[in-house]
Design goal:
Elements: E1 27-31, E2 38-42, E3 55-59, E4 61-63, E5 67-71, E6 77-85, E7 90-96, E8 106-107, E9 113-119, E10 125-129, H1 133-143, E11 168-171, H2 183-191, E12 195-201, H3 205-208, E13 224-228, H4 230-241, E14 246-249, H5 251-261, E15 269-273, E16 288-292, H6 299-308, H7 310-322, E17 333-336
Helix pairs in contact: 6-7
C-alpha cells in the first residue's frame, strides 16, 4: 500500500500551539464506524458516550526533559535528544548540530558527557554516557528541557506536556490523547461506573518516526518498552470475557493492548513492542479508542485508518479542517467507536 495514500493538506493555522485550558474544554469529534455518522462536542461531555462497565485504558508513562544541549571540545553546540537507555551506559539518542561523528565527546552540565558510537539506519545514534541510566535521568530532570515536537513553535512547560495521571518516567514524547483528561473528568468517569486501567508504553522513536518508504509494508517500526502488571492483565481479560467495551486512550495504549492482551496473556508483561498496525490489521482486543488528529504519512494515522477505515478517517479529517478543529499534540480529540 502506497504511503502517499495517507497524505492530506493541513493549513498551518490548524496546528495547535498550546493545550486547551481547562484541558477538557478541547473539542471532541465522535465517529461511529458502523453508521459512519460523526458528532461534534466538547471533551467535558465525554461521559455521554460511555456506559457503566466500559473499561478505559490509559498509558501512564511520564515524559522526562529529554532535550539536552551539550558542547564539543571546540565550543560548538550539539543538541542531544534522549530516546531510551539500551545496555550498560549506552543510550539511543538523536543528535543535532553541524558536527556529528562517532568518537566525538559532547559535554553537558552536572559532569555529564557522552560519546556517539555510531548512527543507525533509523537515523538515531547509539551514544555511550559516563554515568548510569538512573543518573542520566536525574541530571536530565535538572538541565533538560521539554521535548515538544518541531511544529510547536512556542516554549512549552513540562506541565503542559504531561498527562495528569503520568506516573512512570521513561517517555521522550507524550502520549497526547491523554491530555484531554482532567482530574475532575477522571472522577466523573469513576462515578459513572467506568473502569479505569493503566498500562505503560514509553514513547520513543517508534511513535513519532515518519514513514519514508514508498510503501508502508517496507517500514519497520522502532521498538518501544512496555509494561502491564499481572493484576491489570487479569482485570482486562475478565472484562473482555464479560463482553464489556475496551476503550484505549491513545494509539500507544492500543499497541499495548493488541500486542499483549490479544494473545490472551495471563501473566505480567515487560518487554519491547514493535507491532505496526495499518489497514488490513484485524483488531482483536480494542473496541473503541480516544485519539488526536495525526500527522500525514505517520504510523499513528495508519493505525487509526486500520481501525476505522482509511476513507472514513481522511474524510473525517477533511470535515474537521473545515470546522477548524485543532490538530496534533495540543489539539482536539476524537472518539472512534
Amino acid at each position: 500500500m502506497k504511503t502517499a495514500l495517507f497524505d492530506y493538506r493541513l493549513p498551518k493555522e490548524c496546528i495547535a500551539q498550546r493545550p486547551a485550558r481547562p484541558r477538557d474544554s478541547s473539542r471532541l469529534l465522535v465517529v461511529d464506524r458502523k453508521t459512519l455518522r460523526i458528532r461534534h462536542d466538547t471533551f467535558a461531555h465525554f461521559t455521554r458516550y460511555l456506559r457503566p462497565g466500559d473499561v478505559l485504558v490509559f498509558n501512564d508513562s511520564k515524559v522526562f526533559p529529554a532535550r539536552l544541549i551539550g558542547r564539543r571540545p571546540t565550543g560548538g553546540k550539539n543538541e542531544v535528544f534522549l530516546l531510551r537507555p539500551l545496555r550498560g551506559r549506552v543510550w539511543e539518542v538523536l543528535i543535532g548540530g553541524k558536527v556529528r561523528r562517532a568518537g566525538l565527546e559532547i559535554s553537558f552540565g552536572e559532569g555529564l558527557r557522552c560519546t556517539p558510537i555510531g548512527q543507525r539506519d533509523s537515523g538515531a545514534w547509539h551514544a555511550r554516557f559516563n554515568k548510569a541510566a538512573k543518573d542520566v535521568f536525574a541530571i536530565a530532570e535538572k538541565i533538560g528541557s521539554t521535548p515538544t515536537p518541531p511544529y510547536v513553535k512556542r516554549r512549552a512547560r513540562m506541565s503542559d506536556y504531561q498527562t495528569v495521571y503520568a506516573k512512570k518516567v521513561g517517555s521522550a514524547a507524550a502520549p497526547t490523547a491523554g491530555f484531554h483528561f482532567t482530574r475532575r473528568l477522571l472522577r466523573e468517569l469513576t462515578r459513572r461506573g467506568v473502569q479505569l486501567e493503566y498500562v505503560t508504553l514509553h514513547v520513543g522513536l517508534g511513535t513519532f518516526q515518519p514513514v519514508k518508504e514508498l510503501t508502508i509494508e517496507r517500514h519497520k517500526i522502532h521498538a518501544e518498552y512496555a509494561e502491564v502488571d499481572a493484576q491489570t492483565v487479569g482485570r482486562l481479560a475478565s472484562a473482555k470475557r464479560e463482553g464489556r467495551r475496551i476503550i484505549a486512550v491513545g494509539t500507544t495504549s492500543v499497541r499495548v493492548l493488541e500486542s499483549v492482551m490479544a494473545p490472551r496473556r495471563k501473566n505480567a508483561y515487560r518487554g519491547w513492542l514493535d507491532t505496526f498496525m495499518y489497514p488490513g490489521y484485524r483488531f482483536r482486543f480494542v473496541d473503541a479508542m480516544v485519539t488526536n488528529f495525526h500527522l500525514p504519512r505517520s504510523t499513528l494515522l495508519m493505525l487509526v485508518s486500520a481501525f476505522a477505515g482509511r476513507t472514513l478517517i481522511l474524510d473525517t479529517y477533511r470535515k474537521a479542517i473545515r470546522k477548524k478543529y485543532r490538530f496534533y499534540s495540543f489539539g482536539d480529540g476524537m472518539f472512534i467507536q
